[in-house]
Specification:
By secondary structure, the chain is an alpha/beta fold. It is about 40% helix and about 20% strand. Bound molecules: zinc ion (ZN).
């Protein structure tokens, strides 16, 4: 009896470990990634919490290497020579990347990727001078996207979303945030969040954006907000469909007073908050959201000097979305003032069918350089450290340092050549948690 127990225990342990290891995707040993001309860890940028980034904050390691655990976390970073001295032998799998540059994977922290239908016809109308009100009257605008999205089956929506996520991944993006917001009734908004969940992709972050616009069934914004607070938020929480909420604060959309009620209810229920603020006019949304410790305030085109000062001293990240400003032909956010005063900024495409029908990180980054005078190191930090903070993921992701997940992209060009030619950008390889992901 004693002997049986003695033999059985190790067997049970071996079986358990086997299952555990297989679950982790068949990575059996620690991986040592090496042969990297420039390993960009952004370690100093992360230490500075993404604020006032200089070139040295990229923390470039020449002829770099890094060690990744079976669970996909970074155990060590440094020079190749050092690595070979300390980490060779049967416990380590050498992976020669033969790369010019290795960067942290980008994070896309603000997208409306879940919709059906396109809006190219109204784009032409808008360019020929037809007003947004007139376009809405003719059945265009957000309402046309809501109609198309409601008519699409969950399976169709899932396929569209998968394709768009893959388009981001092809550009070196790991984490992708996806908002609801084209359902605009409780039932439809919840269905959209269920579609996001059905992807079963741990790097897709869902955000509840019930208050995106008026609901067709409840056109009174106060009543719709009441519904969202009394029924929507509790249901999202109960079903664990999202742990983040967002709102569109703008003239003709949701007011400051409605936003305050929403933030109060949401934070009481433990949701993280983000908000679309000061895009077309200054409503005071950035100030309000900051007071509720919002993870991010997004757009930020019409900030006052006081707003900039307050944001610079806060933990809230300013997410800048210049592709939307290009499409709407409006001003660009005051990136220089924000950065120079110490605010943390992130960049995002704001991908949506109306005001930013582009998934291009290249376009967004070129605008950041040309129109917002951001430097390349600031742009790299904005897509990585800044975006990780905007999503509350900064402890696990956003740069390549010990303890964080090994989410990285492999390039055959130097970092200084990024966001220069206007062309689609594609890394050679993308790894998430130390595992190669198909991106071609
Ligand atoms: Zn948006």
């Amino acid at each position: 009896m004693v002997n049986f127990t003695w033999h059985f225990k190790p067997l049970k342990c071996i079986g358990f470990c086997l299952i555990l290891r297989l679950r982790l995707g068949g990575v059996w040993v620690k991986q040592l990634f090496l042969d990297i001309q420039q390993l960009i860890t952004l370690e100093a940028a992360a230490k500075k919490q993404g604020r006032q980034i200089r070139e040295e904050d990229l923390s470039v390691i020449s002829d770099g290497a890094f060690l990744v655990s079976e669970e996909g976390r970074i155990l060590w970073t440094g020079a190749r020579k050092e690595a070979l001295k300390n980490y060779s032998g049967p416990d380590f799998k050498m992976v020669s990347l033969g790369a010019q540059t290795v960067l942290p994977a980008f994070l896309e922290c603000h997208t409306h990727s879940l919709f059906a239908g396109e809006r190219f016809e109204e784009f032409e109308l808008r360019l020929t001078g037809v007003s947004y009100e007139e376009i809405s009257r003719r059945g265009g605008g957000i309402q046309s996207t809501v109609n198309a999205t409601r008519q699409a089956s969950s399976e169709e929506l899932k396929k569209l979303l998968q394709k768009r996520i893959q388009n981001f991944r092809k550009q070196g993006v790991g984490v992708v945030e996806v908002k609801s917001g084209y359902g605009l009734s409780l039932k439809e908004e919840l269905r959209l969040l269920e579609v996001i969940r059905s992807l079963k992709d741990p790097l897709v972050v869902p955000t509840f954006l019930g208050p995106h616009s008026a609901s067709p069934e409840t056109p009174n914004l106060d009543e719709y907000m009441e519904d969202l607070i009394r029924k929507g938020l509790p249901e999202v929480s109960k079903r664990s469909l999202a742990h983040r909420v967002d709102i569109f604060i703008e003239k003709g959309f949701f007011t400051l007073e409605q936003a305050e009620r929403y933030f109060k209810a949401a934070t009481d229920m433990g949701f993280q908050v983000a908000a679309h603020v000061e895009q077309l006019s200054r409503q005071g949304g950035a100030d309000l959201a900051r007071k509720f410790k919002a993870l991010s305030v997004d757009h930020c085109v019409n900030l006052s000097d006081e707003d900039i000062q307050e944001l610079s001293n806060s933990s809230t990240t300013s997410v800048l979305l210049p592709s939307a400003d290009l499409y709407l032909n409006v001003d660009y956010p005051p990136a220089r003032k924000l950065i120079d005063q110490g605010a943390r900024v992130a960049l995002s495409t704001d991908f949506n069918p109306g005001s930013s029908p582009s998934q291009s990180l290249e376009l967004c980054s070129l605008l950041a350089r040309l129109k917002m005078k951001m430097t390349l190191p600031e742009i790299f930090s904005a897509w990585t450290v800044g975006a990780a903070f905007a999503l509350g993921l900064e402890k696990d992701r956003g740069n390549l340092e010990v303890g964080k997940f090994a989410d990285f992209q492999v390039w055959d060009k130097p970092w200084s050549s990024f966001f220069y030619n206007f062309e689609e950008i594609h890394p050679r390889d993308l790894y998430l948690s130390g595992k190669s992901v198909a991106i071609s």
